[in-house]
Amino acid sequence: MRRGAHIDAVLASLIAILIISGLFIFASAALGFLGRGATNVTSVAFNHLVLGGGVGIVLLITLCFIDYNQWRKIAPYIYITALIATALVFIPHLGMEHGGGKRWLSLAGMTIQPSEALKIATVLMAAAYFAAIRGRAATLTYGLLGFLAIMAGPTLILLLQPDLGTLGIITIATFAVFFAAGARWRDIGLVLCIALLSLGTLAVFRPYVWDRVAVFINPAQGQQAEGYQLKQSLIAIGSGGLAGRGFGQSVQKFTYLPEPMGDSIFAVVGEEMGFVGSVILVLLFLALVLRGYATASSAPNLFGALAAVGIATYLSSEAFINIAAMLGIAPLTGVPLTFISQGGSAMLASLASAGILLNISRRRNRR
After folding, report:
1. Is residue 171 predicted with pLDDT exceeding 50?
2. Quick one: which of 69, 153, 197, 337 could link to 341 by a disulfide (CB 3.0–4.6 Å)?
3. pLDDT at residue 99 in the model
4. Under a CB-based contact definition with an 8 Å cutoff, are residues 64 and 356 in contact?
5. Which range (127-141, 146-160, 217-231, 332-346) has the least confidence?
6. Minimum mean pLDDT among 68-72, 119-123, 213-217: which range?
7. What whole-number distance in Å separates Cα of residue 363 and Cα of residue 61?
8. Structural domain count of the chain
9. Residue 340: what are its φ and ψ, rounded to 5°?
10. In sequence order, which residues have a C-beta less than 8 Å from that of residue 176 and are 6 or more positions away?
């Protein structure tokens, strides 16, 4: 075997296609928002395209050439810093509340969502931890309890915000690292039981969680209230037919579709690009996660393999959960569509994560 000196061209191509496609899709959705008479389109577009996309692409390219092993050494510090930054939203006049959640920091006229950085920080922390303990991931003390200890901080802070969508992504990605590290089936079963019990408890004590579950079970419920977003999303996707109305021709983005640049942007894709375009987008994300796992399988060390598994899972699961919610096959979560939905912080975190994944592929072993 010899160590590869070049970035995986297939992985880089998939990421590039998703980023470029995402920019076009976002631009189309932004036109719909502008057509409604919104006054903040310019600031939203600047935040997403310049701060998120522009700075993010520079960061992606930079991280492609920084040895990913450097992150193993400082992973605990990155993790703690991300936790502190995410907790700062609770400080008066610094944290900003919107839509019932306190998830943003207001700094110098800009809004930042620090929990986006917590996604990759937690993945790197888990990869560093399980690489350090190696074969002991199958033990109760180092395996399951280690996983729960890593998840404790993000869980507490994100439940208080609340931001269950981000918590779900972090849990899935970190669990994937735990699984790849050699978790026992007993521990996997226990984690799944804890997750189900936690969701049940939240549904009882957080009415909005139960509302989303109820809409998922019965999409016809509350079509002018909690079920409104799903109803309008399905109308948009259904009206796209096989080949779609054509790029920029969505009707729903100009009228009733909530958050056409955010959570509901896949509905814009479905209406403009139809079944064919939607399937292609899903296949691109599927190819991304499979190529990410292939990168993990050829990584030169355990940390690289676990980090690749976590990053690939984070980027793809975020996309799949968003798409599933817009199709009514999963509850609405507020999770963005990776590389596409509005949000400078989300775009920045996704592109930075992609840069680390590409660097791991650059150092992969070739057979």
Report:
1. yes
2. 337
3. 65
4. no
5. 217-231
6. 213-217
7. 15
8. 1
9. -125, -50
10. 309, 310, 313
What is the number of other CB atoms lying within 10 angstroms of the CB of residue 140?
A: 13
Please tell me the distance from the alpha carbon of residue 340 to that of residue 346, in angstroms, as a whole number.
9
Q: In the structure encoding, which two tokens stand for residue 36, read together?
A: 């409604």
Query: In the 8-state DSSP scheme, what is residue 300?
Result: S
Structure tokens at 136: 């002991």
8 A C-beta contact, residue 177 and residue 127: yes
Instruction: Supply 320's token pair.
Output: 């799949």
Contacts of 206 (CB under 8 A, 6+ apart): 162
- Dist CA 343 CA 323 (whole Å): 17
Neighbours of 240 (CB within 10 A): 25
The residue written with tokens 């998120």 in the block is: 52
d(CA 321, CA 331): 9
Q: Which long-range contacts (CB under 8 A, 24 or more apart) does 155-159 make?
A: 157/83, 157/86, 157/87, 157/115, 158/86, 158/115, 158/118
Closest by alpha carbon to 118, among 74, 151, 70?
A: 151
The DSSP bridge partners found for residue 95 are: 105
Gap between the terminal Cα atoms of the chain = 5
Q: How far is CA 200 from CA 147, 197, 246, in A?
A: 21, 5, 42
- Asked if residues 116 and 345 have their Cβ atoms less than 8 Å apart, the reply is yes
Please, is 234 exposed, middle or buried when counting C-beta atoms within 10 Å of its C-beta (0-12, 13-18, 19+)?
Answer: middle
Tokens 């019965």 -> residue = 218
Mean pLDDT of 272-292: 97
Matching residue, tokens 């208080």: 160
Please, what is the Cα angle at 282 between 12 and 113, to 5 degrees?
70
Name the residue range of residue 28's domain.
2-366
Please name the amino acid found at residue 7: I
- Nearest-angstrom CA–CA distance, 358 and 18: 14
Contact 333, 168 (CB under 8 A): yes
- 130 closest CA partner among 83, 186, 179: 179
Counting every residue written for the chain, the total comes to: 367
Token pair listed for 78 = 């990155």
